[in-house]
Amino acid sequence: MIEARGLTKRFGDVLAVDGLSFDVLPGRVTGFLGPNGSGKSTTMRMAMGLDSPTAGDVTVAGRRYHDLPWPLREVGGLLEANAIHPGRSARSHLRALALSNAIDRHRVDEVLELVGLTAVAGKRVGKYSLGMAQRLGIAAALLGDPPVLLFDEPVNGLDPEGIRWVRTLCRGLAAEGRTVFISSHLMAEMALTADHLVVIGKGRLIAEMPVAEFVARSSSQSVRVRTPAPERLAQALGPAKAIVVPQPDGSMTVTGMVAADIGDLAAALGIAVHELTPVASLEDAFMELTNDAVEFRGVS
Amino acid sequence: MTAIPTSLAPLAVSSPTGRAGLADAVRSEWAKFWSVRSTGWSLAVTALAVVGICVLATSTGHDLVPDPTRRSLVGFFLGQLTIGVLGVLVMSAEYGTGSIRSTLTAMPRRPVVLGAKVVVFGAVALVASELLAFAAFFIGQALLSGSGRNHAALGDPGVLRAVVGAGLYLAVLGLLALGLATLIRHTAGAIATYAGIVLVLPIIVGALPTGLDNAISRYLPANIGLTMISTGGGHLLSAPVFSPWTGFAILAAYAVAVLAAGCFLLVRRDA
């Protein structure tokens, strides 16, 4: 379990994390969501004892990271995949970490096997792709069989297969009763992986709730519509103040009208409708909630 | 890569009692030290510098050699640069590559991390430097006597102290470099500062008026080194010097002070 209480971090004039309090409970995957620059990584780094809080506290299993007797056996952290000397092999990197926490050297081969790096374990890490480095980072996190896992953007640089693997792994780790805390700016990925969400913006807590509830609270539900006459329907929907966005697959997404009204309108005009699916995306809910809390925004 | 497992057997052995300490950190740092190429390269180049310059300095000429021991050890003034680079890299490479984050999450008590680096690098630097000092001495004396010139024996007055002193000098300078890298955290900046202290500072001080030069120059690491590798304790310098062991104590104090300042900042700064 991870507990943050009034966690605050100031860098000069910038308040990166501002009085953040939340709990990350065991047995489920908790997603840590926020736009870029919202303070996710800083929070993760404070939890791992790399940055010290300006005020407040974050504890893992009831202790500050600094006070954990065997840190790698209690917390597995993945913070930026490049936290590895490029001149060292994956096996050497993991062996050195294992030695620091009195972990048996056989464990190194086990985690290498688990992340699929056995064949390249003797290669210098500098020659690894971002995806391989990310897998090595996950191997390091699992080295000490820790009950708590903190992954900062674990699917960064991974191919679709790798993303699916991380998702399955995280769900598996949570099912074993571990505390799994993953940060991401990919809402769609979080919708598939996480059970619970901690959402922050500008360093402040915006929401802490189950994923399903987060999505349900979103007011901007949209409807996926498939019709052989998309242009006619779009024209008819325009005056009804609905926003119509054509999709690459030929369907269109309509926001601002419920499915029943769209169906009625199409029927009145004699337009055939092949699909009418209400969709509520985590992405939309997220955008809506963090709209005021985006640090940097392009001019549109 | 379709059959990658997604679950893992638990650790066979549960957590030992106590907590991860200096012994664990030393084992880890030892493995890290020998698993990068820069270690072997730096040590090889140091050996080449010390022995190579010794051969050059003792195999040519037919003059009377004022201090044959020192003549065979002059390569240490180039060796101090390469051992310094290794000392810097032991810490600065962690920041340059980002691996400091892995290191500090495995061992969050930062003074223990620095202590382990001092133990590992200090031990290797001391053993390597002493081996090189004795190797350079014996090779140099053999070459001097081979060309029929005056040479020293280990039992002659001050000789053993100068040879052992040469090794100590190099090892302590390496630790000074490690301390500078802990303070500065950048490879280039730390190497530049280190080279400035051991090479440039003597030139600047030498250009000062005699009174100032005489007051300051005995405190410079390079001049302390010269007294340490000379059998006569540096009587060849124009300015007054400390005795070899007093000089060594001052040099060691520099290294301790810089390492202590580095440790203080290592604990205080975000990684």
Overview of the molecule:
The complex is a heterodimer of chains A (300) and B (271). Chain A is α/β, with parallel strands linked by helices and 300 residues long. Chain A has helices at residues 40-47, 71-74, 90-100, 106-115, 130-142, 160-175, 187-193, 211-216, 230-237, 259-269, 282-290, and strands at residues 2-11, 14-24, 29-33, 55-60, 75-78, 148-152, 179-184, 196-201, 204-210, 222-226, 243-246, 252-255, 275-279. In chain A, β8 and β9 form a beta hairpin. In chain A, α3 (90-100) crosses α4 (106-115) and α4 (106-115) packs across α5 (130-142). The mean pLDDT of chain A is 88. Chain B has 271 residues and is mostly helical. Chain B has one domain. In chain B, 72% of the residues lie in helices and 0% in strands. Chain B has eleven helices and no strands. In chain B, α1 (22-34) packs across α6 and α4 (76-97) runs antiparallel to α8 (187-206). Chain B is globular and about 75 Å long. Chains A and B meet through α2, α3, α4 and α6 of A and α1, α4 and α5 of B.
Helix content of chain B: over 70%
**Form type of chain A:** elongated
Ends distance of chain A: 41 Å
Task: List the total number of helices of chain B.
Answer: 11
- Poorly predicted runs of 5 or more residues of chain A: none
- Structurally, the number of domains of chain B stands at 1
* Alpha carbon gap, first and last residue of chain B: 35 Å
The tally of strands of chain B reads 0
Measured by residues with Cβ under 8 Å of the partner chain's Cβ, the largest interface is: A-B, 55 and 45 residues
Radius of gyration of chain A: 23 Å
Structural class of chain B: mainly alpha
The total number of structural domains of chain A is 2
Give the oligomer, counting copies of the same chain as homo and different chains as hetero: heterodimer
Taking all residues together, what is the mean pLDDT of chain A? 88
Largest sheet of chain B: none
CATH superfamily membership of the largest domain in chain A: P-loop containing nucleotide triphosphate hydrolases
What is the mean pLDDT of chain B?
91
Please give the CATH architecture of the largest domain in chain A.
3-Layer(aba) Sandwich
Strand proportion of chain B = under 5%
User: Which descriptor suits the 3D outline of chain B?
Assistant: globular
